[in-house]
């Protein structure tokens, strides 16, 4: 039986998720024994740009027409497409100003030459093409990538925690930063999977994994307001990595 053909791609982003894959040093030889990596520019410039793929994993958000065209081409040649990282899944930090007038922003930064730039508000992959599975994180967790590959090879969907970071925080017996230190923490509405890494170091969660599926941002916003936090500041914090729909 032939190995599944896999491509790993990057659009506009920091390439941190691809770096996580390369940092799987102890597992890389096992991976290449199980999958046929046809495209992975960060690891090798030797790619098969026109070949069909069983699985494509795409990092980064869509911020240009070139990104959108490339994503559509990847989708067309791939049986399964996986969004890799918070930018791909939600739009990421680049989507913070997606409601702003793009032409005006480009003019403010670049002047008349702003008209020459191929640039438009950041979009997540699912806003352009059909996405089959998501692996969120900024960057993704190494263990989540490896478990996703294992699941896909077995014909199963990758499964991840469906509860918020606050649950992991409680599991680690951390004191609540909101209650104890009155700090804005996005843990109540952020998808778990990071083992509450930041709160465990006494750093408030900034929501880098994107919103948890059944989160209630309006309730969290009201809770922060009751404690005297500025509404616009809170709404901006909650939208740093993903559009979560809180009213200002």
Q: What's the short version?
A:
This protein is of the alpha/beta class.
Key descriptive features of the protein:
single chain, 248 residues, alpha/beta, Rossmann fold, 11 helices, globular
List the helices and strands and how they pair.
Elements (H helix, E strand, L loop, with lengths): L4 E6 L5 H7 L2 H10 L1 E5 L12 E7 L5 H12 L1 E7 L1 H5 L11 H9 L22 E3 L6 H12 L11 H7 L5 H5 L15 H4 L16 H10 L4 H8 L10
Parallel strand pairs: 1-2, 1-3, 3-4, 4-5
Detailed description of the structure:
The protein is of the alpha/beta class and 248 residues long. It folds into two domains: 149 residues, Rossmann fold; 74 residues, no CATH class. It has eleven helices and five strands. Strands 2-1-3-4-5 form a five-stranded parallel sheet, with helices on both faces. Helix 10 packs antiparallel against helix 11. The radius of gyration is 19 Å and the shape is globular. The model has no long low-confidence stretch (mean pLDDT 90).
| End-to-end C-alpha gap | 56 Å
- The strand line-up of the biggest sheet is 2-1-3-4-5
Radius of gyration: 19 Å
Overall tally of structural domains? 2
CATH level-two architecture of the largest domain? 3-Layer(aba) Sandwich
Q: Mean pLDDT, as a whole number?
A: 90
Task: Give the helices and strands as they follow along the chain.
Answer: EHHEEHEHHEHHHHHH
CATH class of the largest domain: Alpha Beta
- Give the beta-strand count: 5
Structural class: alpha/beta
| Spatial shape | globular
